[in-house]
Amino acid sequence: MGVEPACSDATEAPASSSSHPSRLRIRVLTADARTGTLRVYDAADRELVGSVDLGSPAVRLLASHTGDTVAALTAAGAAVTVVGGGVAVIPHKDHVHIFKSPVAALGVPLARGGAATVAAGAGSWASSFAEGTAAYVVTEKSLLQGSAEPRAFGATAPHAGAALPLSGSFAMSRASVAGTSDEIVVVGEDGPVRARMECRNVTAAVLARGVASFACSEGLVTLDDAGTPRGTIAAGGVAIAELAATAASSTVAARTVRGDVLALDVAARASEPLALGSMACDVVMELAEESRIVVLTADGHVHRFDGTTRVRLSTTPAVAPFECASPERPHLAATPGRAWVTVPARGELLEVDTLASSIVRRIAVGGAPAAVAIAGLDARNANLAPGNDRLSD
After folding, report:
1. How many of the other CB atoms lie within 10 Å of CB of 241?
2. Are 37 and 54 in contact (CB under 8 A)?
3. Which residues are bridge partners to 202 per DSSP?
4. Boundaries of domain holding 48
């Protein structure tokens, strides 16, 4: 299945989320909470276009910053499988070309046992396993290189917590030599440690606008893309459970263990809470250039915030109230002006217009869809569109 749209002079994104050019390219991947099936919905075709067998249920799906691949973290054996989203977007100055192909697992799963983590970079992945001795970086190949099968390199020990790809190196958390605290180490592709920073009880890591951030007891410990330490951003003394960011924004969204959400500006080194009426279960960054934070709360509502001003832009009732800790609960992904919410109990995927605060479409995907991610969208060219496609509903 391939599409090469004609060139266009369009440079402005339409105001309506229903006609945003991102809707031409995205695919929504949902993981079944009971089986190893990964189902793929194409937003332009408005139909399921394939599936991938992961072998066991995925507890998390995370797309790379390019949107070319999605990492599926499965509970059984703590395996990480990299899946090609089947969407290649070739940007030009004022337009893009879009090519689509079948979704497929790329190579064999990475598996070392224990609790694994995954983190996305610009065209690369890092995966760290809490048991064993391996932290891997997986690099995407470009369309011009033919096969998109990832290449893994880099291993070091001991380690724990999280790893993050940088330019020519990767950063990872591990136990210090004395064994009394955790630290972040920057490791080159050839193996030597280039830098160290203290960082206790690491829970997550993200890369945003060239700044690598690790969630630690101290707050957000930050490094630049070259691995040079930049200092710590205070997070109000609360433990952070989850981080979300995009490559294009300096805002990092953090969900705390008690269900609050913080908007952290890595450029201004500031941290502010968002006003929520219920516990946050999922927090994501809208995959566009602006700092939009989208939150799914336990009362079943989807909230959209401006991450810079912390102003709530919309609230949409989407699903029935649920427990955040439930293994078969709704999950959230977001694209410009849209939220995508899974409903495991009904075998559905909801398309939510977060500008109009309404449910646009209920998509029957079958099974018990839980974890969800978006393929095919790169924030750096999200607003560029081909000219001969009909963008409206």
Report:
1. 18
2. yes
3. none
4. 17-381
